[in-house]
Design brief:
Layout: H1 15-36, H2 51-73, H3 85-104, H4 106-120, H5 126-147, H6 156-161
Transmembrane segments: 15-35, 47-68, 88-114, 126-144
Protein name: Tripartite tricarboxylate transporter TctB family protein
Domain DUF1468: 19-153
Amino acid sequence: MSGDNSSATTRRPDWAAFIIAAFLFVVAGVMFWDASHLKTIAQYDRIGPATMPQVVAFGLFCLGIWTVAEAWRGEFPERDRQEVAPVIWIIAGLVGQMLLLRLAGFSIATGLLFAFTARGFGKRKLWISLPFGIVFSFVVWAIFSQLLQLTLPAGPLERLFF
């Protein structure tokens, strides 16, 4: 018998996958708890407003079990190194939109989100994507606000035209 080391290269458990499984379990538990507190309309009816959230919670629970099994065996594929900068650009755009939405209005705040997200995806020229995002967001605001009569936050740009 010769010493074959091919089976000695087993992968370790994937701890990131365990964190994902824990997140799935938490979401499933919250959904099931919330669905169990929904009031039923009729006592004789088996299918009510809580049925689909319970089905989804059960599915998430099963996915959590499957994720734990795959993580324990170490069968998840190797992940590429994560780039942090694009995520920071997108999160900064979301925070900027939330902070500016009431002050600057929908068009400017969402245009900023558009430009920062484009920067996160590799578009380097903010001076092009920011005005384009503002114009695109203004068109969206005009369609939803003026044509569909939905209420979106209006800022100085929207008040200038309407």
